[in-house]
Amino acid sequence: MHLERAVGHVVQVPGYGGPCPPQGATHNYVITLTALKVDKLPDAVTRNATSALVGFFARSNSLGEATLVVNQGR
């Protein structure tokens, strides 16, 4: 899964790298939890899948979503 950092570039590592707001400023992080109507996503979603692929399958199997916005700085 690719991660987008506060500076707008994509980090090419799987998983979540933690928050990294710009120094001296705050940044909004949007966290979305999706309830799925399936037990697991299709086998096409592997640990190397892109965020676009994961998002496509998650949204197409969604029962609903909850979103939290966290403002963090360093």
User: Ranges with pLDDT <50 over ≥5 residues?
Assistant: 1-9
Instruction: Quote the average pLDDT.
Output: 81
Distance between the termini: 25 Å
- Main sheet: strands, sense, barrel: 2 strands, antiparallel
Class per helix and strand makeup: mainly beta
N-to-C SSE series? EEEHE
Number of helices: 1
Radius of gyration: 14 Å
Strand order of the biggest β-sheet:
1-2
Question: Could you describe the 3D structure shown?
Answer:
It is built from 1 helix and 4 strands. It is mainly β and about 70 residues long. The strands form 2 sheets. The protein has a two-stranded antiparallel sheet. Strands 3-4 form a two-stranded antiparallel sheet. About 0% of the residues are buried.
Keywords:
74 residues; mainly beta; two-stranded antiparallel sheet; 4 strands; 36% strand; disordered N terminus
Q: Gist?
A:
It contains one helix and four strands; from the N terminus they run βββαβ. The strands form two sheets. It has a two-stranded antiparallel ribbon with strand order 1-2. Strands 3-4 form a two-stranded antiparallel ribbon. 14% of the residues lie in helices and 36% in strands.
Present the secondary structure layout.
Elements: E1 3-4, E2 10-11, E3 26-36, H1 51-60, E4 62-73
